[in-house]
Amino acid sequence: MIRLARLPLDRWSAVMPPLAVVLLALTWGRSLPGVLVALVACFLAGAVLAAVHHAEVVAHRVGEPFGSLVLAVAVTIIEVALIVTLMSDGGDKSASLARDTVFAAVMITCNGIVGVCLLVGAVRRRLAVFNAEGTVTAFATVTTLAGLSLALPTFTTSKPGPEFSPAQLIFAAIASVFLYGLFVATQTVRHRDYFLPVTQQGEVMRDDAHANPPSARTAWTSVILLGVALVAVVGLAKGVSPTIERGVAAAGLPASVVGVVIALLVLLPETIAAVRAARRDRVQTSLNLALGSAMASIGLTIPAVALATIWLSGPLVLGLGASHMVLLALTVAVGILTVVPGRATLMQGGVHLSLFAAYIVLAVSP
């Protein structure tokens, strides 16, 4: 790892995914001692950073808002794969894993990533400026998906507990796919300008003058290495997940913390890319990444879990508890007030981060 760190970024990011896959093949299905867990964690972090690099190369080639979409979907594939593989292990704890991970993703993206990026943008230019039309559309979609998939199951009566009946689960899955597909069409075809970065004067930035786009060959190479990195991340995360679960249990923390850890892990690429965009005065790109990840997390995870219930045994708990419902409601209210004006100050960033901090505190000490 020390020698790899000395390599140029392009070479390092090209070497890391294959090495991580080799390590995955050597450790798959085995009980790992502490030293190997530490080694796997290092390669896991390296694969995540390599995935960020290759996703950004592809994003630069295809341009905005397609670039944000590529990274959001790639990261969500990791999340879906992790959730399904961990749920396949069975047990009572897996019943609420999908809910805990998806809700964690919503809180991390809509409060954590959004708050940090607004702070970064506001510090640089006093105001973080973005396109209100596109951001409102994205946030409205996230709110609807979260309400249908996470809030509504708490109040249904067809099954005892915060669960959907089979018919309700099918509806939620179809509605999630439909809304996500409709948003992608809106973002990339009909109203693409709504999701492009804007200047401080509100003018759309159509060209990225920071660097020439990579060649088609370089972009396709990054697509392949991105896929390899994602496979490595999923597999290695699955390998260290028993250690995470044991650590959470040994610390006396609620089982839902596992979902928080998974969401933090898989959203690390999005966080890094979003902060980098905010530092380049492209706050709209940051919001595309954050809200796109929240949307993809719900819109792709719920259908995948619904399909997985065909062969997975046990209940599927999706409805949120009372404290999380309050946090979701506050996030929706604050988010609306943030995105409607099309500009934000340090205060808005701080408010979102305070909500994220409250979520972390309640996850550790409910």
List the helices and strands and how they pair.
Blueprint: H1 2-6, H2 9-27, H3 34-62, H4 66-87, H5 97-125, E1 128-129, H6 132-151, H7 166-190, H8 216-250, H9 257-266, H10 268-279, H11 283-308, H12 322-339, E2 343-344, H13 346-364
Antiparallel strand pairs: 1-2
* Count of all domains: 1
Mean pLDDT figure: 81
What best-fitting shape do the alpha-carbon axes yield? globular
The sequence of SSEs as H and E is HHHHHEHHHHHHHEH
Kindly identify the CATH topology.
A middle domain of Talin 1
What distance separates the N and C termini? 38 Å
Tally of helical runs: 13
Give the CATH H-level superfamily. NCX, central ion-binding region
- Rg calculated over all Cα atoms: 20 Å
Helix percent band: over 70%
> Which second-level CATH architecture applies?
Up-down Bundle
Beta-strand percent range: under 5%
SS-based structural class?
mainly alpha
CATH class: Mainly Alpha
Low-pLDDT regions: 1-7
**What summary fits the major beta sheet?**
2 strands, antiparallel
Total beta strand runs = 2
| Spatial arrangement of strands, main beta sheet | 1-2
GO molecular function: potassium:proton antiporter activity; sodium:proton antiporter activity
Membrane topology: Multi-pass membrane protein
Domain Sodium/calcium exchanger membrane region: 36-188, 222-363
Protein name: Sodium-potassium/proton antiporter ChaA
